[in-house]
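Dear colleague,

Thank you for sharing your sequence with our group. We've completed the structure prediction you requested, and as agreed, I am returning the results in plain text so they can be pasted directly into your records. Please verify that the sequence below matches your submission; if there's any discrepancy, let me know and we will rerun it promptly.
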Amino acid sequence: MEKLAKDFTSTKAPKYKLRKHSSTSDVKEHSDQEEDDCDNKSISQSKITSVILYFIMWLYLVCGISRENCRRARDMIVYLAQVVAQQDRSIKSQLSRIPYDIHTISKRLELEFEFEQHVCCPQCYLLYNIELAPEECTYKPTISSNQCYTELFNPYKVHQLPYIHFITKKRPSTSHI
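Please find the predicted structure tokens below.
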């Protein structure tokens, strides 16, 4: 079981890193109503719940499934487990404690996201470390080819839609006619 959980969290994708929270006080600071409804100790001790939580996090982080579809996957997994566990009440109570939202799941598993920021050349898609990136792209496909020279930090103007202000007037009363 623990090996399975480690496999899910050790899978590296270029967009994120995972690490455990250093203290449980971090988790309590960011708690929401859903977290308050459930005892964290019973969740972490339940093998079936842990496997489901890690699987949903794996779907979200590695497979890139949306939060909404992670909720659907969670609902389907819980439904399948309920069908299997119709005779076992302890499993039913554990399944009812599985959080619905990916944010709450990550807090329950005490996972913390660390995002890395990069600058991407809009022309050739070369990535640069944001702190070390040059003003212009330095990519050359071959030694004899020209350098890309695309501006990496070129601010662009956001197109503003015209602002329309509606003025409303009260209609004259027709009751005195």
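Summary note from our side: Residues 118-155 form one domain.

Kind regards,
the structure core
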